[in-house]
Amino acid sequence: MSIQIQLQHRFNDLHLDVGFEAPSGVTALFGASGAGKTTIVNAVAGLLQPDQGMIRVGGTTLLDTARDLSLPAHKRQIGYVFQEGRLFPHLSVQQNLRYGRWFARRRVPQGKAHEARLVEMLGLGPLLTRRPGDLSGGEKQRVAIGRALLSAPRLLLMDEPLAALDAPRKEEILPYLERLRDEAEVPILYVSHAISEIARLATTVAVLDRGQLRRAGPVQDLLSDPELAPIIGLRDTGALIAGRVIAHHADGLSEVAAAGGRLFLPKVPTAVGDSLRVRVNAKDVMLSLTRPEGISALNLLECVVTSVRMGRGPGAFVQVQAGDAQILARVTKRSVRAMGLREGQHCHAVIKTVSVARADVGGRG
Amino acid sequence: MTAFLDLPLSPAEWMAIRLSLKVALWATVLSLPLAVAMAWLLARREFWGKQLLNGLVHLPLILPPVVTGYLLLLTFGRRAPLGEWLEQTFGLVLAFRWTGAALAAGIMGFPLMVRAIRLAIEAVDPKLEQAAATLGASRIWVFATVTLPLILPGVIAGALLGFAKAVGEFGATITFVSNIPGETQTLPSAIYAFLQVPGGEAAAWRLVILSILIAMTALLLSEALARRAAKRVSGR
Questions:
Q1: pLDDT tens, A87-115?
Q2: What is the C-alpha to C-alpha distance for residues B205 and B128, in angstroms, rounded to an integer?
Q3: Hey, are the CB atoms on A151 and B135 less than 8 Å from each other?
Q4: pLDDT tens for each residue of A13-41
Q5: In chain A, N or C: fewer CB atoms in 10 Å?
Q6: Are A316 and A308 a contacting pair, CB within 8 Å?
Q7: What's the confidence (pLDDT) of residue B3?
Q8: Across the strands, what pairs with A318?
Q9: Is the Cβ of A78 closer than 8 Å to some Cβ of chain B?
Q10: CATH code, domain with B127
Q11: CA closest to B138 among chain A residues
């Protein structure tokens, strides 16, 4: 099920003009605040009427201003998880969950089994009789996600669902979102300005800059693209490496067979045999022309330089290929010159194990 | 109650009380749904002439009640076109009848109800209503399942204000439907009438005390209801 979005809208200073297609999976809308991300999802949900546009989800046209067609929000069958949860304060958790299902019941005769599965998947069992006022921020968001999914949506919109939460609460929800991406057949449009969330969840990324679409494509390509570094943030740019856990060692390290070679990571919660993706920040990657000896870093990957991009400041991005994996290293221009780094050159990428944080490791996707 | 006052109420006094309660209840029950609809319109919709409509709703609050009563008489009197039509079509006579007293009481209390309910609606976060819409609720359903439960404390407060106003309405009532014992003589009219005759003070006093009792009972009842509703709405 694919999503096609064409929108033009003027609102205060924002001049939104975007067009893109999102495949199934999680499509992240990334950009600074004011880039137009929320305007896009509100237009998809029918909460905002754009000046001009066309929105199709699967085979259904939700909006086509050229044909003067705009389905009202309640007929669009779009699940929406808001930043602040927006649970109904006068209803219990269970009543909140069933709110959307009740309106969807004629359309999709979902049984109790579906509800039970979602309750289990989101860990909502112990919360059902509670009231929204008694829930923590993380619990509220899980209920909001369940409520949206039980309305049997053809598309799920998530507008910075984790932005209002602190780091431990984020960590509490991210695994549920990964399961959602991998198990539910509902495509997700995910708004965020946090690269770490996007690196873990997204399959596709659309990068927005002041109302314009800068780039759209697979998450691995875009996050490691030096050209997008100024938007993503120099310190946040980095490669996503896919791999499979092959062992957990007694000294607290996990061994991963990655596309570019063997990686040792601080212990990951993923089971042996399962796949994962690791974000390796460009600033955490060192390059060496010879295979370093007597060095504390555990991960040494043989690679070939594919591009060198000098920045305006003292830094440079060097993209290297290790096996099937693209790795990005941020080094100084001085080092590039001293080492004579250029396309086609063989070298070794050095990645410190401890530079990979728990938040950088996600499920397969 | 009568023991407390140490004097049994005369049939005339009982009649005034029963009539007052009947008039006030009908006025409140019939105008409440209209007040909720009007409050929603003023709080949530933008349309041409909104300020004019708002002014019209508030007119009974700012006009001298006698003027309102006289305008009612001109509109709903038996010779007035609208009054004549109502009588011929529905057999409904308003002028100098208790039904007219209920109409006058309802109209005088209407702006108070609308104000209280409008404040409650404006306090409801439209984001909750948006969330309900994305879950498949049409505008009517959003109102019934989200807005209405959340504004219930305000609706109760509005209903009490309207009821109290209806029990106490005097100026417009006496102008529109006069002061006929058993038909249009409500509590305030009866108190006024008793005060006009020598030796009527005792009866007037009993009715004054009863007015206070009715008002206090209504207030306590609505406070209790509103507290319960507010607790539900708080999300705890």
A1: 999 999 999 999 988 888 777 766 677 78
A2: 51
A3: yes
A4: 889 999 988 888 899 999 888 888 899 99
A5: N
A6: yes
A7: 42
A8: A308, A329
A9: yes
A10: 1.10.3720.10
A11: A74
